[in-house]
Amino acid sequence: MFLPLDKEEYEFYDPSLGKTHFCKFPELRSPHMRYSRDGWLLMHDSFGNNNTFFFNPFTHERIQVAWPHLYLSDAVAFSCAPTSSSCVIFSVWDITNTLITIGTYRPAIRERTTSFFPNKLPLGQRGFEHVVFSNGVFYCLTKSGCLGMFDLSKSSWNLLPRRLPKRLEASLCFMTEYEGDIYLVYSHGHQKPTYLRLDLKNRKWTEKIRFPGLTFYLGFQSAVTTNRDLVDIPKGESKLFV
């Protein structure tokens, strides 16, 4: 989905058919998308009071989020569709030289929590570019490759001790999840992408040459990985949409 800056017409691209569809949403005024998952967008209206809300572009359903000033968060994500009773909104609310403030909100019961953790990020690391949820954990990646992990069940925050290989730091990076595993995909222009898989047991990234049969839909607000049955690609290969 592409959100225009100057009109109400939105673009939807269907990679399975290679077609672009256009839709209008007059109920949205100057929206800013923060995260996408399970067919829902987490947005705030930059025109006026900056209210945060969920929006389903397929049903036009809109659900308000009772969390004032959520739009000011450094990073935002949610675990599943807001219509589910288990939905949790995750926010890296603030990062200082000494503390990282993390908030959660459960829309079904309107319960909000705030936790404070020591900031063990390297100096100069003040924000997270990608957030992915998998198996009860929110994974947060900085631009230089530091990975923070927030476990919902334990309300704990940990930092992966090993950073990414230096030769990859300058590449365009996206984080995604597939069948419980966390992957990083580096695009190198017209060259073949590089793939890393998170080895949680040994707490490090392992490089993979390729992932036969997988299709990656990558963006900064969300990333989705599917099997090749949904898209027509040659057997034994993978495909990348950025």
TrEMBL record:
Pfam families: Beta-prop_KIB1-4
InterPro entries reported in the protein's UniProt record: Gal_Oxase/kelch_b-propeller (IPR011043), KIB1-4_b-propeller (IPR005174)
Limits of the KIB1-4 beta-propeller domain: 12-226
Superkingdom of source: Eukaryota
Protein name, UniProt field: F-box protein
Native organism: Cardamine amara subsp. amara
